[in-house]
Design goal:
- The chain is built from 12 helices and 12 strands.
- 49% of the residues are buried.
- The longest helix has 23 residues.
- The chain has 350 residues and is an alpha/beta fold.
- The radius of gyration is 20 Å and the shape is globular.
- Bound molecules: aspartic acid and magnesium ion.
- Magnesium ion binds next to loops.
- The site of aspartic acid has 11 residues, from loops.
Length: 350
């Protein structure tokens, strides 16, 4: 266990979750046996307006299913955090300190724009400020002799930790009971910092103990993508752009029927739609077809998503947050959708 809030603690502090009642109409008492995992990329979470838009997609789904959410950092934030590391390495401490403040301010501005009620605002502001203090301490206390990959993962982890708190707050504002959960409390990894491999069996065991009670209560866990922790509690990351993979891990943990990767394109295409007028949206793919596309160099999904999805037999959807009317691309078990493998695809996570 690390210093992050454990879900139980957070649940105890949040009135809506503590009551154990989902507040959306018709939620309580319905069986909602289907479980879905939603993963939102950084561009889907950039600012309060986009957060509310994404939160409405969750609210709609939560009326008929149990929903677990996985979030990336807001777009650009991870790069920002990693620039602090570079500044420190170059001996530019004042610049690094200022950058850390900027990251906190950026999230406080989004909080302001969420216009929460006074009590919730105070609570979330306090949480963000605590994260900001931790970040400032990391920057000030940087021991130049410490391993840099480990330090870089600790720095990079703040983006998702900030965004999960804000997104949970956006859901609360829409009267969807939600709890921010730090994946480092259950995603157990090796200590290859910057590219840590999860131990899936232990992660599932630990994650179920945190996530299933929340889902049962009708609360939406909002889980940080990208990060895990070693068995002795040191924060790791699964590599850049790995929060799709985190989405699949969380979906696997809760035995989700479906994983929806919400991104900023309509799905997976036969070619890059920005570059080719011939580009055609692929509606249905088998795991093998999608995997072959990825192996041929097309930007489809993080390479570890499909093997895990196939193993867990969950359907993966790639859908556009900004065009939710579009059906997106469905990736499922083989044979259901016989067809030719298209020559090249373009799509992927925001
Ligand atoms: N925030 C992380 C990154 O920028 C993970 C992700 O977005 O998938 O690499
Ligand atoms: Mg991303």
């Amino acid at each position: 266990m690390n210093q992050e809030n454990v879900a139980e603690e957070a649940a105890a502090q949040r009135p809506a979750a503590r009551s154990g009642e989902a507040l959306y109409s018709g939620g309580v008492g319905k069986s909602r046996s289907k479980i879905v995992a939603f993963k939102f990329g950084g561009s889907s979470l950039l600012g309060a307006e986009r957060m509310f838009h994404a939160a409405r997609l969750v609210r709609e789904a939560a009326e008929v299913s149990r929903v677990a959410v996985v979030v990336s950092a807001m777009k650009g934030v991870t790069d920002h955090l990693l620039s602090i590391e570079k500044a420190l390495a170059a001996g530019k401490l004042p610049y690094a300190r200022r950058e850390a403040e900027v990251v906190l301010e950026l999230h406080l501005e989004v909080l302001q724009d969420l216009r929460l009620d006074e009590e919730t605002d105070r609570h979330v502001r306090h949480e963000l400020q605590l994260l900001g203090c931790d970040l400032a301490h990391e920057v000030l206390g940087r021991d130049q002799t410490a391993a840099s990959a480990e330090f870089s993962d600790r720095l990079a982890s703040f983006g998702e930790r900030f965004s999960a708190r804000l997104f949970a707050a956006a859901l609360q504002r829409l009267e969807v009971a939600s709890v921010p959960v730090s994946s480092s409390d259950f995603v157990l990894t090796c200590d290859t910092f910057r590219d840590a491999q999860p131990h899936l069996e232990q992660t599932k065991f630990r994650g179920q103990r945190i996530l299933l009670p929340l889902l049962k209560q009708g609360a939406v866990p909002v889980v940080t993508g990208f990060i895990g922790a070693t068995s002795d509690g040191r924060i790791t990351t699964l590599g850049r752009n790995s929060s799709d993979f985190s989405g699949a891990i969380v979906a696997h943990v809760v035995d989700a029927d479906e994983l929806v990767i919400w991104t900023d394109v309509d799905g997976i295409y036969t070619a890059n739609p920005q570059e080719s007028a011939e580009a055609r949206l692929l509606h249905e793919l088998s795991y093998d077809e999608a995997h072959a596309l990825a192996a041929s160099g097309a930007k489809v999904l993080h390479p570890k998503v499909l093997p895990l999805a196939a193993e867990s037999e969950m359907v993966v959807w790639v859908r556009n947050t900004f065009n939710p009317q579009a059906r997106g691309t469905r990736i499922g078990p083989a044979n259901e959708f016989p067809g030719e493998l298209p020559p090249m695809a373009q799509g992927g996570a925001a």
